[in-house]
């Protein structure tokens, strides 16, 4: 009897594997566009609105997710990521109802990563408990800096104390699944300041850290302040040292640099972000969200962008079921180029084996060889081909 059960179990697993090959799995990104204030460096799709219609937003997020998942023929969601904006400003019941609706439409394993970006303002532990109760099992805390002057320059609305308090609370509720975001290279920051700050964060943090070099984006307040000479950019050579010294410090504390900006210990990788970097398809829901998936009635994967402005986005969903503003078919070569571009960000790179499973129609050789520039990179040891590159 027991042996028969084992055989049946193996048969079911085999059938499930075949079924999944014929149908779709996808990661799901959800964009909450609202913030209390606009940071000086940020050019993301975000809006400051004191009268958010939470009920309408909830209904539209659910409707768009259901519509796009149906378009993609998705039977399993591998991970969910709530970004923004400031998704921790959403009501916990919005998150709960959204996840319930997704679970009714597709399978989500109880081990799947459900992440949320958290802004460490006066967020009380009760808020974190409610988000956990709603289904969130991983949080990414936007600390950015512990320096008071740095917080002011970046336009952040929290203090270093609030950041560390939020981090301590999060570690209790989400042990092993707390990430910290930091920005380095802001005007006035020195190498010594940065290393002292990083050392302090490491002493508090969990098993994941993301380090982002400040990027000056046109149209932002910080860009204008530097253009006018009100603030002075950090010398690029100093910023380079900041990154290299940070990599060294984190490695000494047991953190593995598994991606250009991301570090983890105990294999606590961001599974959702790995979906992007390994070419997995993903669905973008919410104002301005991006997606990459193959509709069931189309021949190839599409790049999709949702309508940016929240009110227009909601109107389109209420009339059409989704608010895709632009969709572009991606050729196999374009998909391969994207896979190579994002895959080179991770420590494992992209092997021919990964390429052949996803895009058996084209090889890296067709795209890269012959090329004198590629040959130069190989000779410099900056690009390494595995033995199967021409396959």
UniProtKB/TrEMBL annotation:
<protein>
    <recommendedName>
        <fullName>Radical S-adenosyl methionine domain-containing protein 1, mitochondrial</fullName>
    </recommendedName>
</protein>
<dbReference type="GO" id="GO:0051539">
    <property type="term" value="F:4 iron, 4 sulfur cluster binding"/>
</dbReference>
<dbReference type="InterPro" id="IPR013785">
    <property type="entry name" value="Aldolase_TIM"/>
</dbReference>
<keyword id="KW-0479">Metal-binding</keyword>
<comment type="similarity">
    <text>Belongs to the anaerobic coproporphyrinogen-III oxidase family. HemW subfamily.</text>
</comment>
<feature type="domain" description="Radical SAM core">
    <location>
        <begin position="20"/>
        <end position="253"/>
    </location>
</feature>
<dbReference type="InterPro" id="IPR007197">
    <property type="entry name" value="rSAM"/>
</dbReference>
<dbReference type="InterPro" id="IPR034505">
    <property type="entry name" value="Coproporphyrinogen-III_oxidase"/>
</dbReference>
<dbReference type="InterPro" id="IPR004559">
    <property type="entry name" value="HemW-like"/>
</dbReference>
<dbReference type="GO" id="GO:0006779">
    <property type="term" value="P:porphyrin-containing compound biosynthetic process"/>
</dbReference>
<keyword id="KW-0949">S-adenosyl-L-methionine</keyword>
<keyword id="KW-0411">Iron-sulfur</keyword>
<dbReference type="Pfam" id="PF04055">
    <property type="entry name" value="Radical_SAM"/>
</dbReference>
<keyword id="KW-0408">Iron</keyword>
<dbReference type="GO" id="GO:0046872">
    <property type="term" value="F:metal ion binding"/>
</dbReference>
<dbReference type="InterPro" id="IPR058240">
    <property type="entry name" value="rSAM_sf"/>
</dbReference>
<keyword id="KW-0349">Heme</keyword>
<keyword id="KW-0143">Chaperone</keyword>
<dbReference type="GO" id="GO:0005739">
    <property type="term" value="C:mitochondrion"/>
</dbReference>
<dbReference type="InterPro" id="IPR006638">
    <property type="entry name" value="Elp3/MiaA/NifB-like_rSAM"/>
</dbReference>
<comment type="function">
    <text>May be a heme chaperone, appears to bind heme. Homologous bacterial proteins do not have oxygen-independent coproporphyrinogen-III oxidase activity. Binds 1 [4Fe-4S] cluster. The cluster is coordinated with 3 cysteines and an exchangeable S-adenosyl-L-methionine.</text>
</comment>
<dbReference type="GO" id="GO:0004109">
    <property type="term" value="F:coproporphyrinogen oxidase activity"/>
</dbReference>
């Amino acid at each position: 009897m027991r042996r028969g059960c084992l055989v049946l179990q193996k048969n079911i697993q085999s059938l499930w594997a075949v079924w999944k090959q014929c149908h779709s799995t996808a990661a799901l990104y959800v964009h909450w566009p609202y913030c209390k204030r606009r940071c000086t460096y940020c050019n993301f799709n975000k809006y400051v609105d004191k009268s958010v219609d939470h009920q309408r937003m909830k209904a539209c997020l659910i409707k768009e997710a259901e519509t796009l998942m149906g378009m993609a023929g998705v039977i399993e969601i591998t991970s969910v990521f709530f970004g923004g904006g400031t998704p921790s400003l959403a009501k916990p019941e919005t998150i709960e109802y959204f996840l319930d609706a997704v679970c009714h439409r597709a399978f989500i394993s109880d081990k799947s990563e459900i992440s949320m970006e958290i802004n460490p303002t006066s967020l009380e532990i009760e808020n974190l408990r409610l988000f956990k109760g709603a289904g969130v099992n991983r949080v990414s805390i936007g600390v950015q800096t512990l320096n008071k002057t740095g917080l002011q320059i970046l336009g952040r609305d929290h203090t270093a104390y609030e950041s560390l308090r939020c981090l301590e609370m999060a570690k209790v509720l989400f042990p092993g699944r707390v990430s910290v975001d930091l920005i380095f290279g802001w005007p006035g920051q020195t190498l010594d300041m940065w290393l002292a700050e990083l050392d302090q964060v490491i002493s508090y943090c969990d098993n994941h850290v993301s380090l982002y070099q400040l990027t000056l984006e046109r149209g932002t307040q910080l860009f204008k302040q530097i253009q006018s000479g009100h603030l002075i950019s950090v010398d690029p050579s100093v910023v380079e040292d900041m990154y290299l010294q940070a990599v060294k410090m984190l490695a000494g504390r047991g953190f593995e640099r598994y991606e250009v900006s991301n570090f983890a210990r105990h294999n606590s990788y961001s599974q959702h972000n790995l979906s992007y970097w390994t070419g997995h398809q993903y669905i973008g829901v919410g104002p301005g969200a991006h997606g990459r998936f193959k509709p069931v009635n189309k021949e190839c994967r599409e790049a999709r962008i949702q309508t940016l402005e929240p009110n227009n986005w909601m109107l389109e969903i209420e009339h059409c079921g989704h608010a895709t503003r632009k969709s572009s078919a991606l050729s196999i070569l374009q998909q391969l180029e994207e896979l190579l571009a994002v895959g080179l960000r991770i420590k494992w790179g992209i092997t021919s084996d990964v390429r052949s499973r996803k895009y058996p129609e084209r090889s890296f050789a067709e795209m890269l060889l012959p090329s004198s520039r590629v040959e130069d990179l190989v000779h410099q040891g900056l690009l390494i081909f595995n033995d199967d590159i021409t396959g």
